[in-house]
Fold this protein.
Amino acid sequence: MMSKSSIDTANLPVAVVGLGLMGCSIATCLLMAGHPVVAIAPISDDLQHAEKRIKNHLQHSLEQGLITEQPEHYFSRLTISMDYALLKPCRLVIECTLENETIKKSVYEKIESVIAKDALLVSNTSAIPISILQKLTLHPDRFFGLHWAEPSHTTRFLEVICGELSNIAKGEYLYELSHKWRKEPTLVRKDIRGFITNRLMYAMYREAFYLVENGYATIEDIDRACRNNPGYWMTLVGVFRWMDLTGVPAYHNVMKDLFPTLSNSTTVPALIDDIVKKGGRGVANGKGFYNYTPEEAKLWEETFTEFSFDIRELALKYPVDVVDKKLSHDSNEQ
Ligand SMILES: NC(=O)c1ccc[n+]([C@@H]2O[C@H](COP(=O)([O-])OP(=O)(O)OC[C@H]3O[C@@H](n4cnc5c(N)ncnc54)[C@H](O)[C@@H]3O)[C@@H](O)[C@H]2O)c1
C-alpha cells in the first residue's frame, strides 16, 4: 500500500540513534526510502560494524530487487558519527538503544539539547510504555513509539504508538510518513504495555512455556505446530479475518471450554530463566532453547535473511487491500 501523500523524503532529514541490530536495519530502510540519514553511534562499538552492516543490507536489497541503484547511491546520503550535534537539521529522530530506561533517558537529553522544538522524537522500544518514556523528555507531545520488526528494511510491520501526552495529529503524520517506508502500519491511539503484537505474541509464548514445562509437548513439537498452523496463514490474514474465513461459531464454542484451561501464570517461566542465568542468548552465542555450533548459528542467520526476502515477495502479492483490488479490477473489466 503506497502513500498518496506529498511528503518528499529527499527533503526530510531523519536520524537513528543507536546502531545495533535494529538501528542498522532501520537506517537502511530510511535510506532506501530516499531520506538523508544521520546515524548516531552512542558507543564506539557501533562504529566497528554499522557501516559494514548497512552496506550489506543495501547489497542484499539490490540483489533481491528491492532497490535499483547501487548501494553507494544510498550510502552517500548517510552520515555515521558519535557527534549528536549533527542531529540539528533532523525532523525525526528514532532512538534505538538498549531496552533500559536510564540509558534511553540519557540519550533523550543529548538529542533534545540539539533538535528543533517541533522535530519528532520516537523510540523503537519493544515494551516500555510510551507514556512512561515520554515523561523522560522535555516535549512529551512530540514523542511516540515506532515499533519496527527486524529486518526493518524488508518487513512491512510497523506500530505507531501514541502515549497519553502525545499529539495524535503528529501520530497521524508518522502513520502517513511510514507508508513511504513501504510499511503497512498500525496506529495505536491509546498506549498499552506491549502495544499490539507483543501482547498477542507473549500470550502465545506463555502458553508455549506452559505446554513444555508441564510435559504436554517438546520444544521441537511446539515450534513445528507454530510454523505449520499460524505460520501458514498469518501473512495473509489476521486472527479476526481468520475466524471469518474458517467459521465464527466454532470459535465461540471452543472459547467457552478452552479459555479457563489456558495458562494465566504471571511469573517468568523457569525454562527461560535458567537459560538466561547461564548466559544463553540464543543464536548470538549458540546457547538458547536449542544449542548451535558456530556454523549452524551462521546458517540460521543467513537462512533468516534469505527467508525475509522470500516472505516479503509473497506478502507483497497479498497486501491488506488484496480483495478491494480484485473488486475494482473486476468492475473495470465489466
Ligand atoms: N531485536 C529486535 O528484534 C527488536 C524488535 C523490536 C524492537 N527492538 C528494540 O529496539 C531497541 C534496540 O534493540 P537492538 O535489538 O537493536 O539491540 P542491540 O543490542 O543490537 O543494540 C543496542 C544498541 O544500544 C546502544 N547502546 C548500548 N549501550 C549503550 C549505552 N550505555 N548508552 C547509549 N546507547 C547504548 C548501542 O547503539 C547498541 O548498538 C531496544 O529498545 C529493543 O527492545 C528490538
